[in-house]
Amino acid sequence: MLENIKRVLVYTHNSIGLGHAFRTLAVITGIKKWRPDIDFLVMSGTSIPQIFFAEDIEVVKLPSIKLDIDRQGSPMASRYLSGFELENIFDFRQRIILDCFDFFQPDVLIVEHNMTGQMSELIPLLTKKWMRKGGAVDFILAHVCRGIMRWIPLLNIPYQNPRHKSESINLGELYDSLYVLEDREVIDINREFLGNDPALETKIKYLGKVTNKTYEELPSRTEVLDKFRVPDKPLILVSLGRNNQVKDLITKLLISFKELDVYQNYQVAIVRDPYMRSDQVENIKQLASHSEVRFLPFIPDMVDLMSHCELVIARAGYNTVNEILLTGSRALLVPESHGGGEQEWRAQSIQEDHIKVISEETLLKENINSLLRRMLHQKQKGLPQKFNKYDIGKFIIDDLEKLKLSAEQCRCR
Q1: What sign results for the dihedral spanned by CA atoms 232, 236, 237, 238?
Q2: pLDDT one-digit tens code per residue, 313-367
Q3: What does residue 324 show for φ and ψ, rounded to 5 degrees?
Q4: Phi, psi at residue 271, to the nearest 5°?
Q5: Closest CA to 333 of 306, 307, 360, 294
Q6: Contact 6, 39 (CB under 8 A)
Q7: Which H helix or E strand runs over 395?
Q8: Which stretches of 18-57 are assigned E, i.e. beta strand?
Q9: How far apart, in Å, are the Cα atoms of 3 and each of 26, 28, 36, 405?
Q10: Which residues, given as ranges, of the chain have pLDDT below 70?
Q11: SS3 (DSSP) at 318
Q12: What pLDDT was estimated at residue 163?
């Protein structure tokens, strides 16, 4: 194996949930198995930087930005610094990003999800790539995405050239490689988002789905019951995020559980989203007694609990769906209606008999008792799909090393 790459700078914005951070963690730890000598530095606005620290990965925490998914148009806002204008926060984030690059001097920059960064904050950094391309201080620029995007990425960066008037930088030409953590049968990103660009097609690699744990790394039932302090009863896990519909959705589910006499035979566990407001949490806790429902704090590796559940009721985000497929757990998916239809799109690609999909509207307005009864009586789980982040990590680092070697050979000619 080539070992020219020593430093990898990673950008992941994380403005809604936690999926981007965990997906990025899976890629990095997948690489670290083969190349523990590489220094990684992650730049992220995530609220859970501790998941990187736990794997000995350094993080520079950017001031957190959120998309307010409960307001019209899902406007962007500061998550914590309420006394600052949004543009000032992005100016600060941009300075931090450039300082990180200048200090770290990476061999590789990996940009996760958004090609130009949140609010295009990476454009000055991408301009560095344009200026250095093919030179002695060039670096590899790689993109990692989940496949289904929210919008078409910006592919041309305008700039003023005093001698030649206005020109533009083609972003697709800047990126050396694009890694898609999905099967091409689910989404063809060039066709759907990138304009069927023939030049880009040669750079796109479909690596299949990834999860932060492999099937072999899942703990035993005894370990899970002890870790989460839940009784040794068949488990129903509910994890529906934090938007304004959550209280109504959980209320409807608890009513159905009561009517079906679920509590006699099952332990219901509701996981609190870490971004959920405290008043929302208290409102939900008042809906059921602790003898009937266990309210669990945020679980970094919810797949551990999921693997030993009789039924999982959750959103249709990338990580959740893949973890359900990984474990073979029976699941009722309720796509969250935001993000340009990303969750609905993903749910449509699911063909497994042990997974059912229901809309928020249907869950709230129709009687779901018969659906829940059928799913609980269906004893057959799905066949676990063994996604392997270490295979993906090896492919990525081998590919990056080849790109770096090729660039160095071109400079020597």
Answers
A1: negative
A2: 999 999 999 999 999 999 999 998 765 688 998 998 898 999 999 999 999 999 9
A3: -65, -40
A4: -95, 130
A5: 360
A6: yes
A7: helix 389-412
A8: 39-44
A9: 21, 16, 11, 10
A10: 1-2, 15-17, 69-70, 73-74, 150-155, 159-166, 289-291, 338-340, 413
A11: helix
A12: 62
Q: Beta strands 331-333 and 355-357: pairing type?
A: parallel
Strands (E), 240-378: 267-271, 293-296, 311-314, 331-333, 355-357
Q: Given this model, what pLDDT does residue 108 score?
A: 98
Bridge-partner residues for 111, per DSSP? 11, 143
**Residue 168 β-bridge partners:** 158
> For 39-74, how does the pLDDT look when each residue is reduced to its tens digit (9 = 90+)?
999 999 988 899 999 999 999 999 988 877 667 766
The full DSSP string for 175-200 is -SEEEESS-TTT--HHHHTS---HHH
What number of other Cβ atoms are within 10 A of residue 145's Cβ? 24
Give the SS3 label for residue 364.
helix
Helix (H, G, I), strand (E, B) or coil at 10: strand
Length of the chain: 413
Q: Strands of 241-280 (E only): list them.
A: 267-271
Residue 270's alpha-carbon distances to 245, 252, 273, in angstroms, are 15, 14, 10
Distance CA 97, CA 100 (A): 5
Structure tokens at 300: 């970094």
List, in sequence order, every beta strand (DSSP E) within 54-125.
58-61, 65-67, 76-78, 108-112
Look at the pTM and tell me if it is higher than 0.70.
yes
Which pLDDT value is given to residue 122? 94
Helix (H) / strand (E) containing 200: helix 198-201
